[in-house]
Amino acid sequence: MSSPRTLQALARLADLTPRQIATELDRYIVGQAEAKKAVAIALRNRWRRQRAPEAIREEISPNNIILIGPTGVGKTEIARRLAKLAGAPFIKVEASKFTEVGYVGRDVESMVRDLVESAIDMVRSERESEVEDLAHERVDERLLDLLLPPPPPEPKPEPAAQPAGVHHTPSDDALGVFLVSGSGAVVKETADPAQDRYKRTRDKLRQLLLDGKLEDREVEVEVTPQAPMFDVLASQGAPEGMDNISDMLKEMLPKRKKKRTVKISEARRILFEQEIDKLIDIEDVTSDALERVEKLGIIFLDEIDKIAGERSQMGGPDVSREGVQRDLLPIVEGSNVQTKYGMVKTDHVLFIAAGAFHVSKPSDLIPELQGRFPIRVELKPLTEQDFVRIMTEPENALTKQYAALVEAEGAKLEFGADGIAEIARIAALVNERMENIGARRLHTVMTTLLEDVLFDLPDRGTETISVSSAVVRDRLKAIVEDEDLRKYIL
After folding, report:
1. Alpha helices in 180-263 (DSSP H)
2. Percent helix, strand and coil across the chain, each rounded to 5?
3. How confident is the model at residue 145 (pLDDT cuts 50, 70, 90)?
4. 8, 212, 309, 406: most buried, per Cβ within 10 A?
5. How far apart are CA 423 and CA 397, in angstroms?
């Protein structure tokens, strides 16, 4: 039985038909309709599976996909946007980084562990957004306690013994004095003037804190320092299999606290993290994350053609490449993988593989692995006209990105239609004369084109910068015509 939060995540897919999924992908990716159609069906099938009768549900396997096409045509972007659309845990791994068991390198199970870490981060981020306001309120109260510690309570005097039959009536001093304020509200003053002064001072400090006027004031906070060894592991990445050991050692070592004097701005960050940790149930986060991995996880396995292996003269594929494939097979087929958060079943994780397959072919994969990727889609190389669309249609188009960067300095950047066409022509031309890197060539061309503009921008004021075909030719003509310059700059 799925948890309510996982069901809520799956419910998002109910409103996304395959056609709507493809339309959403169109907002960021130009062309490649066949690939969008294939991934849209695979994503919708996840929701359909949850609606299937329980007796058959576990038998329905995900339709894993191989995207075939040269670099820079949108393979990775399709998978990434699909995962974002579904709110699913997602990682991208390169198959060429793995080695056969027994060799030095990453083992294939590490990609499942990485996917779990991604899911933990995703779920924790969701929980943080839910309790963020409450955490900020608690942080403000703790900062006020640090700025103005509450006065120690005064010892209560022992009540005097009363003669039998005498009943004591509380005086005005014991009950406090009730006053009528200017607005007509009845306000009770305590009998303790020191307590009243403390409350008034605290209210003034709270207002100053909210107005941001105390950010440079220093306070003393308690922190739990991390052991240097764990700092090194965190910064450089723990060796394979060391993450569980380091966590065990952390639990065994005593939790020592240390006091630091920091500014309010820094103390706010430290205290916020502490309050978030108190408010979030890490066991609930872990349980939800593991369930999302098993039911919604997507692993993008790039460069799978690099482990396909050409057939050698001996009649078989390269031994180490075939070994990696055989190690991958149980993960893709469905197996139990031990992570530091618990066991994860990969039976219903969606695998999207991708590769250029210039030298090898999908049929060069071992037959068992081929069978686990029943859907194969060939992505088309990008044309000059595609480059024009890429720079104008997507919501994150390069032209819009550069315009936003220039606008940050108060200036304005405008691309004429002829200027965009000329950039597309040069990018397509360079791809033809050199290695074809697809849409990534637009990045190198745009960076070179606008280098001087971005360098001089703070000194140019708020003028409007227009990019026409003449400007593009003038800036890039020498580079395009010089083979050596073109090779090293574009």
Report:
1. 193-210, 228-236, 242-252
2. 55, 15, 30
3. confident
4. 309
5. 14
Return the pLDDT at 143.
82
What pTM does this model have?
0.75
Q: Residue 126 and residue 115: Cα distance in Å, rounded?
A: 17
Q: Return the pLDDT at 116.
A: 93
* pLDDT score of 157 more than 90: no
As given in the structure block, the two tokens for residue 66 are 């191989």
Over residues 180-205, the mean pLDDT reads: 64
Ordered structural domains, the chain, with CATH: 4-123+290-378 (3.40.50.300), 384-489 (1.10.8.60)
Contacts (Cβ under 8 Å, ≥6 apart) of 110: 240
d(CA 287, CA 6): 10
Q: How far apart are CA 82 and CA 24, in angstroms?
A: 9
3-state SS, residue 397? coil
Q: Which of 80-84, 271-275, 484-488 is least confident?
A: 484-488
Q: Using CB atoms within 10 A of its CB, is residue 441 exposed (0-12), middle (13-18) or buried (19+)?
A: buried
For residue 182, the tally of other CB atoms under 10 A from its CB is 5
Closest CA to 293 of 331, 237, 251, 254: 331
Q: What is the dihedral of CA 30, 36, 39, 43, to 10 degrees?
A: 90
pLDDT of 237 > 60? The answer is: no
CB atoms within 10 A of CB 259: 8
| Percent of all residues in the chain with a pLDDT value above 70, rounded to a whole number | 78
Write down the pLDDT at residue 303: 87
Burial 144-153 (b: 16+ CB within 10 A, else e): bebbeeeeee
- φ, ψ dihedrals at 434, nearest 5°: -120, -160
Contact 261, 220 (CB under 8 A): yes
